Amino acid sequence: MNYIPFLSGGRSFNPRTDIPSSAIHGKTILVTGGNAGLGKQSILEFVRQPASSLPSRIWLCSRSLERAQSAIDDISAAVQASGVNPDFDASSIIKPLELDLTSFASIKSAARVVLKESDRLDILMLNAGIMATATGVTAEGYEIQFGTNHLGHALLTKLLLPLLLKTARSATGNDLPRPADGSPPITPDVRVVILSSEGHRFTPLSGINFDTLKSNQSSILTWQRYGQSKLANILFGKQLAAHYPDELTILTLHPGAVNTRLFHPFRDSGWVGWAATGVLKFFLSTVEDGAKNQVWAATAPREQVVVQAADPSGKEGGKGRCGYFLPVGKRVGESGWAKDEELGRRLWEWTEGELKGVEVEE
């Protein structure tokens, strides 16, 4: 479903004018799937800002360094053409990072680079994902959609968590880190932005089929495999917020139905998919509009994103700062499974068990 602000009650948001000047200035951001689609557009919006508002570094993650560099070149050209900064060189801020979420070895390698070269991490945008793909497994044997959309991102988060917490626990007052240009210190406001989907409502009967996750799960529909991975995104976000209530703000969101490469497997699945995609394209958002919700989530004032603490069951007043948002910035309720505290705890424990001992080597 494509959510239009005046129909869904979402906020009016224009990244070119509505990102507060201090929201990302001097900060470090990491975006998975940054070479195309919503990730690339998000990075463009982060740097299509006045020089006084720019982040200090953005890690653009891609499975291919060649595609990452091509995206950086495209972003440079787009910023220059916009007139905001005619001499802008994206490579001065954006760094390519090779990352394949289907491989623990690749994830560890990427985390090692970030931990070595960055002394802070303010925004972790878990944007990459696959949708309704053919059956398959990751390098470690997990169902391909669950392994990519949830477990790969969970491992990346685990490995970067010390840096996120270090940033969140930065000293106050005059001891806060200052940007190189001498502007005011950076106040810690660490956010993890997780792209889920309204597809989280279409899952197997048990919500998540834990017993067969280390297989291709060919016995259930591809959309159910996708749905359980997106459900896991929401549950993981709630658990992360509950475990680190004073340090992290977690925003899970649905970007809307956006015309990106995510739809290619569906389009290529046969004549029905091809025909349906031909019709759907008239109802899909552009990438520029589709990225607004996650850019808002990363940059909006805290009073907008931290409405009230929510416990893992979705009840207000609980432990942890976490919410689920439709475009743009409209907080809504999730599915029943996404509010199931016991399922959330089981996912957290299962994930911890699967990732036990997977660390960044010195």
Automatic annotation (TrEMBL):
Organism field: Sordaria macrospora (strain ATCC MYA-333 / DSM 997 / K(L3346) / K-hell)
Pfam families on file: adh_short (PF00106)
Family per record: Belongs to the short-chain dehydrogenases/reductases (SDR) family.
Keyword NADP: yes
Sample GO molecular function, one term: oxidoreductase activity
Protein name: WGS project CABT00000000 data, contig 2.46
InterPro entries: NAD(P)-bd_dom_sf (IPR036291), SDR_fam (IPR002347)
Taxonomic lineage from the root: Eukaryota, Fungi, Dikarya, Ascomycota, Pezizomycotina
Entry keywords, A to Z: NADP, Oxidoreductase
Domain of life of the native organism: Eukaryota
